[in-house]
Amino acid sequence: MFAIVPCVLVVLLAGAPQRGQLDTKDPAIKEFNEHVQKYMDLHKKIERSLPPLDKKESDPAKIVNHQKALSVAIRAARPEAVRGDIFRPDVQPVFLMIIKEQLSSGKGATARAMILGDGNPKSPESPAKVDLSVNAEYPAKAPLSTVPPSVLLSLPRLPDGLEYRFVGRHLILYDGPANLIVDVLPDAIR
Amino acid sequence: MRKFKIPLSVVILFAAFLSHAQEIRLPLENDSLRFAVIGDNGTGDKPEYDIGGKLTAVHAMWPFDFVLMMGDNLYGGEAPRDFQNKFEKPYQALLSSGVKFYATLGNHDDPARQVPYKPFNMGGKHYYTFKPKEGVRFFSLDSNYMDKTQLDWFEKELKSSGSEWKIVFFHHPIYSSGLRHGSNLELRSVLEPLMVKYGVDVVMSGHEHFYERIKAQKNIRYFIVGSSGQLRKRNIGKTALTDKGFDQDNVFMLAMIAGDAMSFQVISRAGQTLNTGGVMWE
Fold first, then answer.
1. Which residue range(s) make up the domain with A51?
2. Which chain B residues contact residue A177 at CB under 8 A?
């Protein structure tokens, strides 16, 4: 009988998330995923209502105009959106913990340099400032931060079109096709 | 004896031809695949235009099929005029001749604007693969955002690509002697195991604003071509990685694959041949 106890423990531990890893069963993560999906449903609905953009478009003006039309329509559809609508208070500690773990692991220094390096819009090389408001347009002249694989592989997976990016030490949820800041998690890197 | 006079205009034209004539050390083999490589080029400044001019001159003598772009295709703004000044104009002659460009995304590039842009031939995707010739396959990755979806796609494509040349290109080098950035160990930890497992032959990157040919690592050859517009002088540190490095002028690369052999030549903005060599398919 005593032999069963270690076996059960091994099974339980094998299923449990490791430090810095995502617990997909966490209700806060489930809720986060639901809010992400809700946003993407809105994005897709609005995109379908616009004249479609050719996936192989030779005229950059048409690409820029389509992006602007999409961002204007999404912004108009969620005028009340505020910080924390998707990065809700319950899920914020989970994100902070994962990022902290990844940036203090063996490769943490490389990951930190990758995030805060010259692709980060807060770096001295960046020619534009980013307005960290929900629904703000991401400035065309500002670079997009590079996000290390270790961090991306640890955070909840996002659907196509939405990305995690950093502005300085703040994590943003970025809608690339619409060039919009969807939500902000301030001081995600501490 | 009657004097034969050469019109002054012909003399000037000939002199201009000689001054632009570029020594190409790669043969023009039948049935070969020929391409050029540029990186970190999209400044819209004179060095980019000079390299564009050199490529045009080379293309007239040694026609290549396409150009690979290592990222940072458009610096500091991506309005329609930026696409013109930093891409369409510097390479106008090549584009008019039907030369295709295949871009990968750098940290200064806006995916939403560049991915659908037809002349970059990304097929509407952040990462993609193409097979320009039987037996040769290229893979372009988005090293700014290497998430699980992309890694799964890369493995699936590598697995199904069979025995052929596998050439992978992405912006951030995973081996580099750069003093500014150096090797990206984060990316190396996720990409190298896949590339070794599935027999990738050559990896090309940019990001570092110089040229570096890395000694073979786990049987994979690495090149950095990141100075076709930008240049960071004296930025190659002393490491055991370097096979050949050059950080004194802007450069581009020419490459040719014929059967089991890939030959390459790296040329500076001044027209100097900096490096030549070959890679054998294994």
1. 26-185
2. 112
The string of DSSP codes covering A115-138 is HHSTTSTTSTT-SS----STTPBP
Q: Name the percent of chain A lying above pLDDT 70.
A: 88
* Residue pair B223/B253 in contact by the 8 Å Cβ criterion: yes
- Classify strands B211-217 and B220-225 as parallel, antiparallel or unpaired: antiparallel
Reading the block at residue B141, the tokens are 């990755």
- Tally of structural domains, chain A: 1
Encoded tokens for A19: 């430090």
- Let me know if residue A96 belongs to a domain: yes
**CA nearest B75 in A: which residue?**
A141
Is the pLDDT at B109 greater than 70? The verdict is: yes
Q: Report which residue type is found at A31.
A: E
CATH number for position A145: 3.10.450.160
Q: Is there a contact between B144 and A55 if contact means CB atoms under 8 Å apart? A: no
User: Is residue B72 within 8 Å of residue B45, measured between CB atoms?
Assistant: no
Q: Are B86 and B72 in contact (CB under 8 A)?
A: no
Q: Is residue A26 a contact partner of residue A16, using CB atoms and an 8 Å limit?
A: no
CA A16 to chain centre: 24
Interface test with A, best of B104, B128, B144 (most A CBs within 10 A): B144
- Domains delineated in chain B: 31-280 (3.60.21.10)
Lowest mean pLDDT among A87-91, A185-189, B2-6, B58-62: B2-6
Model confidence at B116, pLDDT cuts 50, 70, 90, reads very high
Convert B161-195 to b/e letters by CB count within 10 Å (16 or more is b).
Answer: beeebbbbbbbbbbbbbbbebbbbbbbbbbbbeeb
Asked whether the predicted pLDDT for residue B13 surpasses 60, the reply is: no
pLDDT of B228 > 50? The answer is: yes
Question: What is the interface pTM, i.e. ipTM, of the complex?
Answer: 0.86
Contacts of A143 in chain B (CB under 8 A): 107-108
pLDDT of B111 higher than 60? yes
Residue A126: closest CA among chain B residues belongs to which residue? B76
What does pTM read for this prediction? 0.90
Which residues does residue A171 pair with via DSSP β-bridges, in sequence order? Answer: A166, A185
Strand partners, B245: B212
pLDDT digits (tens, 9 = 90+) for B22-50: 899 999 988 999 999 999 999 999 999 99
Task: Collect the ranges in chain A with pLDDT lower than 50.
Answer: 1-2, 7-16
Q: Once rounded to an integer, what is the mean pLDDT over residues B226-234?
A: 97
Which residues pair with residue B244 across a beta bridge? B213
For residue B182, what are its two tokens? 């150096």
Does A7 fall in a domain? no
d(CA B268, CA B30): 26
Spatial separation of the C-alpha atoms in residues B60 and B97, rounded to whole Å:
10
Alpha helices, DSSP H only, in B21-125?
46-61, 80-83, 92-96, 111-114
